[in-house]
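Try it yourself: sequence plus arginine, in.
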Amino acid sequence: MSDSIVLAYSGGVDTSVAIKWIPEHYKMDVITLTVDIGNVPDLEAIRKKAIKLGVKKAYVIDAREEFIRDYCFPALQADAIYEGSYPLATALGRPLIARLMARVALENGATAVAHGCTGKGNDQVRLDVGINTLAPDLKIVAPAREWGMTREQTIRYAQRNGIPIPVTKKSPYSIDENLWGRAVECGILEDPWNEAPEDAFIWTKSPERTPDKPAYLEIEFVKGIPVSLDGEKLDAIALLDRLNKIAGENGVGRIDHIENRLVGIKSREVYEAPAATVLLKAHLALEELNLTKQQLRFKQKVAVEYSDLIYNGLWFSAMHQDLAAYVQSTQRFITGSVRVKLFKGTCMVVGRKSKYSLYSFKLATYDREDVFDQRHSVGFIQLWGLPTRTQAQLQPVYELNSPLKSHQKRQKRMK
Ligand code: ARG
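Structure, out:
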């Protein structure tokens, strides 16, 4: 009996070819694993296809709920957006897939796992690091990183081996999608000067074609987790489905980003992330209301670190656990509602309320109810400006008439 290998199987050309390629090169029996995180339209069809291609076993796992609960929502609570643009959909999906691959492998006594990633992207890193961390004894095979075939050659290999290729017009793009977003790469997008054509987008309408009236939406959060839309409690999957639809309908969530990959390449990435875009904005709006200035400032720094570690495949690290614990702690009062206005590709927060709000009308108002004692500001300003005044008296930093000139003169004098 030969060893078994668990292949992460999407049903696409590359992983279908891998089903035949692996036994040819590694003499192992292939078990496929298809994980649904909101990307798989027909699980049963994919399972049947794998069986037809002669695999030993074909697993399909619906992991949508786990994906949202344990990966997307914690990232939302952290305000994780890579390089200020990318809500990290693909990056969040990989650790979950890695974990399920390792689990299915161990359950089946398999000695290896395989995936369809190439050697140029981030996904290989995320899967390999995840698997190496969780199940270090498993060998990892990445056929697309090893076989050295071009796209054409892969297709010819498929034809020679009786692997069905979808007859529908082949998409000119490389696409990865899940409930948190859709990533589109390659083809005409590889020239960063080209505007992404309409056919790159599936979830979002072009703002030119969206309704002429805005859509308003109220999102309720409990401890940083969205729980209802317009007052209707929804489970996580339904909430994301519905939000993707409404926001997409209004053209919200299109992202065009020149991204720094971990492997050193800059790549042009086009994303659609309607629900994630709206939730990230709304969540931050609630934090602005309920966290102090220091909390917000520090949390922004953590958000950058957190996004980087998700992007860079370090989900299963102690660093992640530590940051996640901090983030959880910050969310204990992020309960309340946010009202957003979706219109022609934009999502604007137009209202927020919470029983934990730190906004005090009595402090902010200029009306009669004002309780802010303006006399205190005089002394406060004295002390706040003290170091700057002291410095000005002892060091000629600025001149009244030409502040810059005095600085330049001094520089010259110092030379
Ligand atoms: N650049 C994004 C990331 O690294 C998206 C990757 C999409 N993957 C794909 N196979 N098309 O997270």
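One thing you can check immediately is this: The first strand starts at residue 4 and ends at 8.
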